[in-house]
Amino acid sequence: MINASGLRIILHLTIFTIITQPAQNEVIATLRTIVLHDSNVGEWRLYNRCSHGFVQLFLNNVNAMGKSESECLTRFLVQKTEWDDSFVLKQVHSKRYLCLNSKMGLISKSNLSYRCRFKEHLRKSGYSTFESRWRRGYFIGFDTEGQPLCSRNSSQCFQFIKLASSANKGPNRDCPSAYRRRAHRFAVPQINEIESASAFDVLKQTFMQKVLL
């Protein structure tokens, strides 16, 4: 005799078995992310070989055109787990994660998911490559204009110089407040903030695009 609790378990198992294998992998990966405990292990700034710039996150856009002095946009907190030696990159000031979307595009997200997890591979040349843990065998990179790429490629466009530092510096108080607000993608710095920001040109272009939409 099966009680109600037993019937519910059987029903859940039946539903799970009829889900396609890729969907099952997605469910399992998501559950792993929920139960994982990430530890802050340091900060990275990533310099791309193709774009000759640093990976930066600004107003919900990701590119690799950051300058060496643009710490407000290029500092990422590294959070690792011992489960599968993967990590996530969380921008120090905006608190947003570097992730992949369903079309394998590199984006920023406020909520963590398994699509935000990567694994580092250190090459003999000393450069680092970063493989998606969501889609094994796919690496993130940037073209010569700093636009995101994701492919089964390991050319120099997918290679980075990693500048590491300790994780106890905290947000830079000299950064415009718009970089630190939770809703930063809708926030526009004040004039005096803009004049002191190295990302003025990026801000101007992005703001005009939003106005003209």
Automatic annotation (TrEMBL):
Alphabetized UniProt keyword annotations: Signal
UniProt xrefs under Pfam families: FGF
SUPFAM superfamilies the UniProt entry points to: Cytokine
Taxonomy, superkingdom: Eukaryota
Protein name per its UniProtKB record: Uncharacterized protein
UniProt keyword Amino-acid biosynthesis present: no
Gene3D superfamilies recorded: 2.80.10.50
Organism the protein comes from: Bursaphelenchus okinawaensis
One of the record's GO molecular function terms: growth factor activity
